[in-house]
Each structure stands twice: as C-alpha cells, then as structure tokens.
Amino acid sequence: MSSAPSSPASRDAVRPTPQPGVGIAVLIPAYDEAATVGEVVRVALAADLGEVVVIDDGSHDDTAAVAEAAGAKVVRLGVNRGKGGALEAGANAVTADVVILLDADLVGLSPAHVADLAAPVLSGEFDMTRGVFAGGRLQTTLAQRMTPQLNGQRALGRLDLLSVPLLGSSRYGVEVAITRHAIDRGWRFVDVPLVGVSQVMKEEKRGLLPGLLIRARMYLEIFKTIFLGRRRQ
User: Fold this and answer.
1) Quick one: which of 80, 94, 161, 185 has the fewest CB in 10 Å?
2) Is 53 in contact with 28 (CB distance < 8 Å)?
3) Are 106 and 199 spatial neighbours (Cβ–Cβ below 8 Å)?
4) pLDDT for position 148
5) How far is CA 194 from the centre of its chain?
6) How is the chain split into domains, by residue range?
7) What is the pTM of this model?
C-alpha cells in the first residue's frame, strides 16, 4: 500500500470534500493530558471538518475543563477504561459517519495534518488512514517506523471502528486491534506522513520511573490484545 503524499505542515489546511451526506467527528481520548489537550483541540477545530469530542478517561487533572475551554465537547468517563474503552465511548457518543482519531499529547500538529489524514477516507478511496510521524522528534519517528500498527492518528468509518472485536476492553492494545481487524476484513488503508509531528513521551509527562511503568503496562496490554486476537482465529 502506498502512502498519500505529504505536504509541509506550515501550509494552509485545504478542507477535504467528503462524499455527499457524510458527517465527520474528531475523537480525542485523554487521560491526565491537561498540559497538551487544549492545543490539539484548537488545531482539530481549525481544520473545520466536524465536531471535536474529547473523551476524558477518568482523569485526575483538569483535562476536561481545558478541553471544554478550547471548544471541545467532552464525554466524561467516571472510571478509567483505557484508550480502547474511551474510543468506544466516543464513537457511541456521536452520529458521524467518519471519525478522525487524534492523541491528546501531540506536538507540532496543524490543521493541514488533520485534513491530510481525513482526505483519503472522505473521498471514498480508502477505508482507513494511519498517520505516521515524519521529520519530528527522532524517538517518536523511529518508533512509528518500526511499529506503524501502533499509530494512534487515524481516520475511518465510525461503524467500522465499533465493529473491531474487543474494542472496549483493548486499552493500549486498541491500535493493534484496529489494524488486525482492518487486515482481516480487507480494508483499503494507507499511511499518511505527518511531517513535523511528534508527541510527549510518557517518561516526560509522568517522570522517569512512573513513565517506564506505564510503558511496561502499555506493552503488556498490547501483547494481551495480540494473544486474545490469535485465540479468536
């Protein structure tokens, strides 16, 4: 599968034209992301594609208040359900045909990136896109080149997202679950370079030791999702 051509992040966003009657929503799952979620919301709104929804996954900080102040609709979860559970809740909270998934800790994101991510799906050419960091921070760019199936930036049909087995219980394994389902179902998908985009690493957000523990839990949940998916086959 070939990647869609990239454009400089500094260019003006060109709003992609969806097929007639296609509704769009941006879903941003967030857990204790008050420091960065506001800017991601503002960029998503500037892309002018549809409503922007932040799913506050049981945060202990001001994530929900910051997201609302930036202009997002906020879905509050009373307890932490993990990333997969948050995306399931967000997809059930909107009626859009197409959803764009963005992480809440992105750095360097522009409206043009969001438009580029959405365009191949809105045109009907592809069923899903995956955003791949390029030219940003070395650590995050290399990580996504090695494991593109873990990319959190995507666009796809809302019902397609909800059809992913174990979506609500996949937690950090959600991207693996989506990618595996896409392959199993023969979805047409393409990787879209997100030039200059990166994200704040867990060790930077939480501190070295807590960040490493969170990362270890993330990999455990990813492996669990892979194992459960194989058992279903």
Assistant:
1) 185
2) yes
3) yes
4) 60
5) 13
6) 24-199
7) 0.81
